[in-house]
Amino acid sequence: MTTEVIKIKGADLQTEEMILNLGPQHPSTHGVLRVILKLDGEVIIAAEPEVGYLHRGTEKLAENRTYPQMLVISDRWDYLSAMSNNLVWCLAVEKLLQIKPPEKADHLRVIMVELNRIASHLVFFGTYGIDIGAYTPFLHAFREREKILDLFEEVSGARMTYNYIRIGGVMADLPADWVGKCRSFLEWMKDRFPEYDTLLTGNPIFQDRTKGIGVLSQAQAITYGVTGPNLRGSGINFDLRKDEPYCSYEKFKFDVPTGANGDCWDRYWVRIQEMKESVKIVEQALDGLPAGETNAKVPRILRPPMGETYAQIEAPRGSLGIYTISDANDKPYRVHVRAPSFINLTMLQEILVGQKVSDVVATLGSIDIVLGEVDR
Amino acid sequence: MIGYFTNIYKVSAALLEGMWVTFKWMFRPSMTVQYPHEKLTPPERFRGTLVFDKDSCTACNLCVKACPTACITLEPYVDPATNKRLAKINWYQIDFGKCNYCRLCEEACPTKPVKSVRHSHGYEWAMTDRKEMNVKWVRP
Amino acid sequence: MILPVWTIGQKRAAGVLSGVIAAAVGIALAVGELPVRIAQIWESVLGLAAKKAVPAIVMDIASMVIQCSVIIGFISVAVMFMVWWERKVSAHMQSRLGPMETGGWHGWAQTIADAIKLLLKEDIVPEHASPWVHFLAPVVTFVPAFLCYAALPFGDKTISVDLDVGILYIFAISGISVLGIIMAGWGGGNKYSMLGGLRAAAQSVSYEIPRVLSVVPILMIAGSMKLTAIAAYQSEPVSWLPFLPKWFIFYPFIGQVSFLIFLICSVAETNRTPFDIAEAESELVAGFHTEYSGMKFSFFFLAEYAFVFLSSGMTAALFLGGGSGPLLPSWFWFLIKTFAVVFLFLWFRWTFPRMRVDRLMEFCWKFLLPWSFVNILVTGAWLILR
Lengths: 376, 140, 386
Description:
The structure holds three protein chains of three kinds. Chain A has helices spanning 58-61, 67-74, 82-97, 103-132, 136-156, 178-201, 204-210, 218-223, 229-233, 240-243, 264-287, 340-345, 348-351, 357-367, 371-375, and strands spanning 7-8, 11-12, 18-22, 34-40, 43-50, 165-166, 169-170, 307-315, 318-326, 332-338. Chain A is α+β, with helices and mostly antiparallel strands. Chain A folds into two domains: 7-48, no CATH class; 55-375, Cytochrome-c3 Hydrogenase, chain B (Orthogonal Bundle). In chain A, the strands form four sheets. Chain A has a three-stranded antiparallel sheet with strand order 3-4-5. A three-stranded antiparallel sheet of chain A has the order 8-9-10. In chain A, α3 runs antiparallel to α4, α4 runs antiparallel to α5 (136-156) and α6 packs antiparallel against α11. By secondary structure, chain B is of the alpha+beta class. Helix content of chain B is 25%, strand content 21%. In chain B, the strands form two sheets. Chain B has a three-stranded antiparallel sheet with strand order 2-3-5, with no helix packed on it. A two-stranded antiparallel ribbon of chain B has the order 1-4. Chain B is rod-shaped. Helices cover 69% and strands 0% of the residues of chain C. The mean pLDDT of chain C is 82. By secondary structure, chain C is mainly alpha-helical. The chains are: A alpha+beta, B alpha+beta, C mainly alpha. Chains in contact: A-B, A-C, B-C. The interface between A and C is medium-sized, with 34 and 30 residues.
């Protein structure tokens, strides 16, 4: 996309490109991301995301932490869905130790992770509304998220860094009356979806801003290794909960929503549908909650046998993977985190080209990154 | 032509529906808590500020080992007469600037029935100086 | 459907609110028509002046100064109230309460505190800014906002200058403030401000056209450009529908189309959501006023709200019959109608997302403009065939 250079007789008029720094201090980069935009008027001709402003070196930190201690660090990757981070770490270590958590622990894990998926997508819904310019959906979404956080607070004692899912099970059983509270929240949540649909999903201005913007084709999505709702928005039906079930996900009935065009609207729509599916999963898990132990027998000091492992789950932002090497010590030899936000972010440089400045925010918002996870 | 007008109708209907939602919520009570005037009670398992019971502690060092950020330090009590380590602490220090509020120390603590180091329900705590974050308990 | 319950405090607040409204109505009834009161007071002042043999020119100047300061004072108070009201309305739409602390009852003094804070803040001029342009931009934006109020009728005869071309004057003067926005965008030396200023220029100039054209049917029917005359024309009841007042909004088709176009264009002119692309917070940080702080920023802020109030006042005068209404004095009716339209502005802002720049232009040129022409045609046909 280049503007035509207008030739006036006797004078050569030339247009100049403008370089615009979007971030690290910008209201809608969702943290400290910097995107260097090359603009021709309001049209983008090149975009380069720069990451690393929030780098905390958690992969290196892991080499100095014991396996249970690393859980505390894992809360801080994707702070909007800390339960998923806990879960993937536990799954990796359990794979190394060859422990099988009891059935009840599996159910509790599914409940927590799915509730957290709703909370995380609610943040997406709200912040995306702000990116597009509607402020009210943000606070409506946070009102509902607050209820989920209250539930988490009751069960784990914290609102963001839960440290609830532990190696071999969970921290503790559900408190008394928690199931009832959770059910009443689900009922409340089901009433809110139609409101969300009228406020944002069905709003013609919103549809106008998102449809046909930031199109990610299927081939591009696979080339960039994009996962999660972004991939499903492009129309590829890939969900680790279905394709490689963990934590007894094969027991639950749910649909995997997919989009058609891979534009911002599809990515948004997939997330809204996923929230509805998550409500279904939590309901099924609450219905079939088995009795029994919540923890498997785990030695006090964990020294997994020599070996390496890769565990992955479907986090709200894509497939979150952990690669660990154990040297039979109580601390991991090496940890690598496959952070979905980071990998999804790479597609930005390609899909932004040719769009307008106001679409940058819409596109960036629809990828739904968490900078804590991008930079780790 | 008909499409044009149905489009106008649909768009305005959708916009009005959205306005109706915000209008409805305007007359519903707020969900917020006016914090300093009213306070919520934290749940049973709430991980608030750590409290330490300096008399029951056995100086076993398990909490120090469990802490992921190494914010706990302690010195066991040494009897000056026999020069032997006793199951008591001399001093115990938590650096709240580093504390993660993760409950790993409380879970590691072996004292019964009440853990020596445990989370309270306190969440209102402010320091004006970084040094104040180092909270030290000394046994007389 | 599980809904939260009203607490006693909230019920009490609602009670206080209805009490405040009742008190306002009582005061309005006690004061009565403003021009009458003002004439009484002014006559006594003139009598005093005649006793002391003050020259007439001094009294003329004094009269002008008093009128100016009354308008400026009124606008400042109205803006402060609107800011507080916007916070409250938005908060209640979002299940919050908004400011609750400052001043005691529901944070009524919050805006006053904010204004004081803004006035006391350091005035920062960026290194790359062009100092004079940067300094003049808020003034150029802010002064027209106040000038416009000279020709706005606050009810029957409550107008400082009853111009024959009142509407034209207001449109012309309010158009100047776009210049200030462009100056702010360019003078800040910031790329975001620059983009914001350019967007504002394109938007304001485009939306000015359908906005003016949407008023044309009214001018055709009322046969005058005098705002007081238009308001007076609407105060008689309609001949064919006795219980309806003859407000322009009740004219079938013509009135509604004009009203909607005027309202939409007013929202666009005042740079508010869904047309706030000039200061699009999530895209351009703060748009044209990114580089402004303290007092200069508060000038932009004041100008924006002054224009919102002006647009609402014009809507009330043009479409809602100005000060016409039963029982209460006309200025009070005018304020009620104006604030009802202001509420519409707030309601739009807190419900809708922002439009995209190109769509905004399309909407103006391809939708609003043709429809305003159609409207003029229909009005002309109606006037001929009547």
